[in-house]
Structure formats: C-alpha cells, structure tokens
Design brief:
Layout lengths: L4 H11 L11 E2 L8 E2 L1 E5 L25 E5 H9 L6 H20 L10 E7 L4 E3 L3 H8 L4 E6 L5 H20 L5 H20 L2 E14 L5 E12 L18 E2 L6
Parallel strand pairs: 7-9
Antiparallel strand pairs: 1-2, 3-4, 5-8, 6-8, 6-10, 8-9
C-alpha cells in the first residue's frame, strides 16, 4: 500500500509545509540556476518494516500509510527520531504532531508578525573532489549510515538484467542507510558481507561503484544553522571516461571517479 494523494495533502496542509519539530519550511525557493528543492520527508510514526523504528506487528497494515501514522519532518529531524526511537516513541511523535498542527492553526489565526520569517538558504559546505571506488561492504555501510540524504546515479543501462542488478544494489544501499543504525552487531556483519557480494557481482558485469560524502548547510527560516550530510553513490561502467586510473604507487592505488562539483 502507498500513501494516497488525500493523506499526502492532509499531511502537508495541516503541517503548513513545516517540520513538526523545528518549524523549518520544507520547500526551498528556486534560484537562478536550480529549481525548488524539497527538504522534507513524509515519515512513518510506526514503521512498516520489521527492522524499522517503532515497528509494531499488531498495528493494522491498512493504517500504516494513513495520515494518522505520518508526520512531516525535515531530513535532520527524520534521522534524529529514527535513530533515537526510544526517546521519540510512538506516543511522543503523536504528541509532537498534534502540538505542531495546533501551533499551525493558532499561528495562522494570530498576529502575522509572530510567524517564522526569513528565506531558507541551502549551500554546499564541503564537496569531495573525487569519488572513491568502493570494494568492501564495510566501506559502503560507513558511507550511507548516518547520512541525512542520498544522491544515487548510474550509467545508462541497456538490459533488464542490468536494471535489476544496479537497481537492487542502489535500493539495498538506500535501505541500509535508512535503517543501518538500528542493526545489531551480528546483523551489521551480515549486511557488510551482503554488500561486498553485491559489489563483486557488479564488477563481474563490468560496473564499478564509487562513493563520497557531501555536506550542505541549511540557514535561515525558523531555525538556526544545521549541517546536512548527503551520501553520494555512483555506478559507472568500467569503460566510462570519468573513471580515472591512478598510479599503483599512489595512496590506495584505486580508481577514482571524476570531479563531483556538478553534484
């Protein structure tokens, strides 16, 4: 089951396009160079995944994607509530959501001068010069776990087999990025091995995975300044001209991907 248009409209409308915790606006205005950016997440209070935060097997499956089980958060606070799910329990998040919707109603009906003001600005703080080749699952887990967002990409795929291979790899990496902090040590070891095997399978088919981290800073709006860490993951064909072969005498002796300044 997926989130319906009705539930989505209710969620964004009642939250007034703001994070339920920090009150930041979640749609950043377009610039002369880029379109508008969405920096908010539609978050489940009770996860639909057994390994997800606040999972409850007794909760009705039909209600998982309903408005009542969703809360609108900025990506920083989405990460926070999922990593600290004991502090941010089901009851706590329901209370936060209810208080925020009440705040929205009272603010819109009150003095406009009491409303948060000022444009929300989003700028890059730290950009990797190159993406580094990933050969082990531990490297990939370290890349995606703890990030606030993801930037995934790949070369043009030519067959259904390639779509399945690359798509499954990126989807798995994304899921571990979302829930990796909740894994017990033994399960994390299993995940590392699983990702190593996926990387090896990619290379057997002529693909190489590269990764890095980019740090953005969010300024203005209703809150202060916050860093936003993005995991960059790219899957290139080994014949791609962007793959730079380094001299074996260099540091790691590993190929690197081209510059990432275009994000």
């Amino acid at each position: 089951m997926a989130i319906t248009d009705r539930s989505r409209k209710m969620l964004w409308g009642r939250a007034a396009n703001r994070c339920a915790i920090c009150k930041r606006e979640l749609v950043v205005a377009a610039t002369d160079l880029d379109r508008e950016a969405l920096v908010g997440d539609e978050c489940h209070i009770i996860s639909s995944r057994p390994v997800g935060p606040r999972y409850d097997p007794t909760f009705p499956a039909s209600e998982l994607d309903s408005h009542h089980n969703l809360i609108l958060l900025c990506r920083n606070h989405h990460r926070l509530v999922d990593e600290q799910c004991r502090m941010y329990s089901v009851d706590a998040l329901r209370g936060i959501k209810a208080a925020h919707e009440t705040w929205v109603t009272e603010t819109l009906q009150g003095d406009p001068r009491s409303r948060p003001s000022g444009p929300l600005r989003w700028r890059r703080k730290s950009v990797p010069e190159y993406l580094v080749r990933l050969t082990h699952g531990q490297e990939l887990l370290a890349l995606v776990i703890g990030c606030h967002g993801f930037s995934f990409g790949h070369d043009e795929l030519q067959t259904e087999q390639e779509v399945e291979l690359v798509g499954t790899f990126l989807q798995t990496a994304h899921e571990y990025g979302d829930f990796g902090d909740d894994l017990e040590p033994y399960r994390r070891v299993q995940a590392s091995r699983e990702l190593t095997e996926s990387l090896e399978e990619l290379e057997l088919e002529g693909f190489i995975a590269f990764g890095g981290r980019e740090v953005h800073v969010c300024e203005g709006g209703a809150g202060g300044t916050e860093d936003f860490v993005v995991a960059i993951l790219r899957v290139f064909r080994e014949t791609n001209d962007e793959v730079i072969r380094v001299n074996p005498s260099d540091a790691a002796g590993q190929p690197q991907a081209g510059e990432t300044h275009d994000g």
